[in-house]
């Protein structure tokens, strides 16, 4: 194995678990809020839904920062851009 073939040292990414992020994705009838929640890394999210009062309490308890929706969303999601809510109307192979 040559020097160029040997594995390079990898440094772990810094992850600040004290930073919490929320992005509202939809407001439903009946007072429910759909949102993305992330800890430390806003690109890795959990999709959640709470009623408006519980959402406000959740945000206060977690001291969240708001982060916007991506500027460009493709009209047809590919394998990497779909959301769980999109699965309700999609048939998978």
Low-confidence stretches: none
Envelope shape: flat
Count up the helices: 1
Mean pLDDT, as a whole number?
Answer: 81
Biggest beta-sheet profile: 4 strands, mixed
Distance between the termini: 42 Å
Q: Provide the β-strand percentage band.
A: 25-35%
Q: What is the number of E strands?
A: 4
Integer-rounded radius of gyration: 18 Å
Order of strands in the sheet with the most strands? 3-2-1-4
Assign a percent range to the helix content: 10-25%
**Class inferred from helices and paired strands:** alpha+beta
Q: What is the string of SSEs from the N terminus onward?
A: EEEHE
Features:
93 residues; alpha+beta; four-stranded mixed β-sheet; 1 helix; 4 strands; 27% strand; flat; DmpK; Phenol hydroxylase subunit
């Amino acid at each position: 194995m040559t020097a160029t073939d040997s594995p390079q040292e990898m440094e772990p990414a810094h992850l600040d678990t004290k930073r919490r992020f929320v992005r509202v994705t939809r407001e439903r009838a009946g007072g429910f809020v759909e949102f993305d929640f992330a800890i430390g890394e806003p690109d890795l999210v959990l999709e959640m839904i709470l009623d408006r009062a519980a959402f406000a309490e959740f945000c206060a308890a977690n001291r969240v920062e708001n982060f916007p929706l991506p500027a460009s969303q493709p009209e047809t999601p590919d394998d990497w851009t779909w959301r769980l809510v999109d699965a309700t109307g999609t048939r998978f192979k």
